[in-house]
Amino acid sequence: MDFKLTDEHKLLQDTAYKFARKEFEPVARECDREEKYPREIWRKGCETGLVGVIIPEEFGGPGAGFFELALITEQFSRVDLGLGLVVVGAAFGAENILFFGTAEQKQKYLPPLVDGRAICAGAFTEPDAGTDVTGAKTRAVKDGGDWVINGSKMFITNGTVCDFMVVFCLTNPDEEAKHRRYSLILVEADRPGITRTKINGKMGIRATDTASLTFENVRVPRENLIGAEGKGFYQLMHFFDCTRTMVAAQGVGLAQGALDKTVRYVQERHVFGKPLATNQGVQFQLAEMATRVELARTITYKAAWQVDQGEVDPSLNAMAKYYAGEKAVWVADKAVQLHGGYGYIDEYDVQRFYRDAKILEIYEGAKEAEKLTIARRLF
Predict the structure, then answer these.
(1) All structural domains of the chain with their residue ranges
(2) pTM of the prediction?
(3) Which listed residue (68, 74, 95, 364) is catalytic?
């Protein structure tokens, strides 16, 4: 068992971190305050080779794995979670095409994600169907050579900026086994009948685009079906089992970034004539923060590595996502506390980290749902 990163991995980390420092830091506060989605940063990420890294070379990507995606995501999130998601999340949802799509679908939809011609969205969540995806009511009905889609989606990342989306649809409502009632269908965002509305006023990750979607008699060709009809639930579960390692990496990166900023602050801040860092109580808190970051990193790396070995472990990935997200919230809270009053104003980045962190306990499966996954595997 070797816990050392290769020279190639270290170079990838360094490239991602330098990119984030250069591109994110100058605009992070502005994008947060104005809820601004910076397309130019996404394009630069594509030019640097940091978007769609798991896409194989035959479709224009570097052919890396989920471990490399985790390394990039961690370094991005170390600087700014929202802007990091703008870049690595531009291909979110397209993993389903890679896993289950036809050769024609892969050739058509994957290369544009790498070279900056397209953004993807995963349209899965609905107003009354989040963690319980089998409660989804968006329906796709066959009509001649088309699917006709009606319904709505909620909290969709990239919803108003995407060029196409992977939509979770009810296609076999009369199927006795509810898990076999659903399918995944590719939908181009400019199809007539789609209304996309940006959601404003989010607590955190305000630079990202989040939207509600409605589908009114939206027609797409039958060949836009991804994989086999009625397999959408199982496809989606496999997708989440893999991509939760990316969310875990977001938690690791944010926690590391909050720790970095706090270490610098307590060395510069003087209290009672001494640097705050000389206080033993402060040192104890920093030690706890660093330990939890390292534990989260270890389980996240292991989970992502196993995905690349073809050994997808839903329980382990749930552990990584739940633990790293929870520790990101905990570390960000400690960071604000150690900054005192300064941590409460937006002149200091830790308050943004604190707001951003909470989503990690909610999206891609709330932490309570992750715990259920873990418990079921125990039994």
Answers:
(1) 7-93, 120-230, 234-378
(2) 0.97
(3) 364
